[in-house]
Amino acid sequence: MVALAVVTTIALCLLLDWLSNRDRHTEPAVRLPARSHEPGLDPPVLVGDIQVQLDMSYHPAHSWALAVGPDRVRVGVDAFVVHVLGPFDAVDLPRPGARVVQGAPAWGLCRGTLCAPVLSPVSGRVVAVNSLVAVQPHVLQEDAYGAGWLLEVETEDVVTNLNNLLHGVVVCRWLAEATGRSRRHLGPARGGSAPAVLPESWSLAVREFLCTEVGSVAATHAAGDGG
């Protein structure tokens, strides 16, 4: 009986390994060198023409989270929303000490007179903001997963916060689906550094992909400082 149990366990492990390899082989992404990324992380992958960092976890509204300590999470926005709505000329960040709530507006991305509130991927207290992005918003366009991080948040439960987000190969499928929806709703991406969305489609894009409504910088700031 013991021998049978051992054989069964080995067979199960081999089956799980095969299934895992099969998923990786069908993953719709190509790994590529990173311009810069956190030490110890794999380079990002390319899904269509959008980069994504698979070591990070993602809110369905296109913000990301990365644990950088036992009770601290770094957050930002993904390259998809940067491509669709950017380039940005202002990023409205909450002040250190402000509380953010998972799934609630926490900061704003602005282009001209347009501003899009972005949902926080985690809950907790803001302990650091990226002053570089605050004064040089173009960094987001160049390096959304590295130098373009936005906040560091102290949270009482890192595991629960991250478990509520998207991870791994499912992120590639989610991003590919979002890219398809952006083409259907907003039209094909324009070349060069031009944003995919025109000003008249800004509100539609914000509702569709950020799951928020357009608002002013002040309104977004107030949301980030609340509580």
Describe this structure as you would to a colleague:
The structure is a single chain. The chain has 227 residues and is an alpha+beta fold. The chain has a single domain, classed as OB fold (Dihydrolipoamide Acetyltransferase, E2P). It has 8 helices and 12 strands. A 6-stranded antiparallel β-sheet has the order 4-5-6-12-11-8. Strands 1-2-3 form a 3-stranded antiparallel β-sheet. The longest helix is centred in the first third of the chain and has 24 residues. It is globular, with a radius of gyration of 19 Å. The N terminus is likely disordered.
Task: Give the structure's gist in a few sentences.
This protein has 227 residues and is an alpha+beta fold. It has helices at 2-25, 79-85, 131-135, 138-142, 158-163, 169-186, 202-210, 217-225, and strands at 30-31, 45-47, 50-52, 57-58, 63-69, 72-77, 90-92, 99-100, 105-111, 114-119, 124-129, 151-154. It has one domain (37-225): Beta Barrel (OB fold (Dihydrolipoamide Acetyltransferase, E2P)).
